[in-house]
């Protein structure tokens, strides 16, 4: 899945990205979102995307201001790795009436932030701590809790542009423990990294930063 940040990608650039990505069957969907929306217009961005692409467009929201009825679905995230009530349940309560009003498909997603060796935007904006990457038992308990709480999707996040992506052992462990679709993102730099996380058990890999830095990387996903 390609992550597109409406704050960092201009409409003209979006057209170029779609022209490179649309023909690839390896790319399954677009995620639209950012940790903090400063100036982008999510509705306009998604309308442009939908007018040029046949792939599903899912909102990956940093907060409720990034919702749009133009998308196919929203990852209804709860940042379970943290202890900030706003990102555990507060934003979700504020977002729910919008989701209901527009009958937007909401995919209940357990969002786990994992330490990557730098201060990620998610960590800073949400004011939460990531899970330590050397504590697999603790991570396992979070995965199990996500499952027992009834989430339908697990997103393992190292943070955009992370110097170290989610440990492969964590991916293998999550897949071994629970029968949930697994998304892995943060710091994946190209096809090789993507193949690695998919081989470890991820159902989908998310790439954002590497595409923003160099659109031609999309050709390697054909
Ligand atoms: C960030 O997981 C996504 O929320 C994607 O990370 O931007 O590093 O690809 P990158």
Brief sketch in words of this structure:
The protein is α/β, with parallel strands linked by helices and 222 residues long. It has 8 helices and 8 strands. 37% of the residues lie in helices and 17% in strands.
Structural topology:
Layout: E1 2-4, H1 11-21, E2 30-32, H2 42-52, E3 57-59, E4 73-79, H3 85-101, E5 105-113, H4 121-126, H5 136-148, E6 153-157, H6 168-177, E7 182-185, H7 191-200, E8 204-206, H8 209-213
Parallel strand pairs: 1-2, 2-3, 3-4, 4-5, 5-6, 6-7, 7-8
Helix pairs in contact: 1-2, 5-6
Task: Specify the CATH homologous superfamily.
Answer: FMN-linked oxidoreductases
CATH class label: Alpha Beta
Q: Which structural class should the secondary elements be placed in?
A: alpha/beta
Total number of β-strand segments?
8
Q: In terms of per-residue confidence, which ranges show pLDDT below 50 for 5 or more consecutive residues?
A: none
Helix content: 25-40%
Largest sheet: 8 strands, parallel
Number of structurally distinct domains: 1
* Helix and strand run: EHEHEEHEHHEHEHEH
Q: Which overall shape is indicated by the principal axes computed on the Cα atoms? A: globular
SS summary, helix count: 8
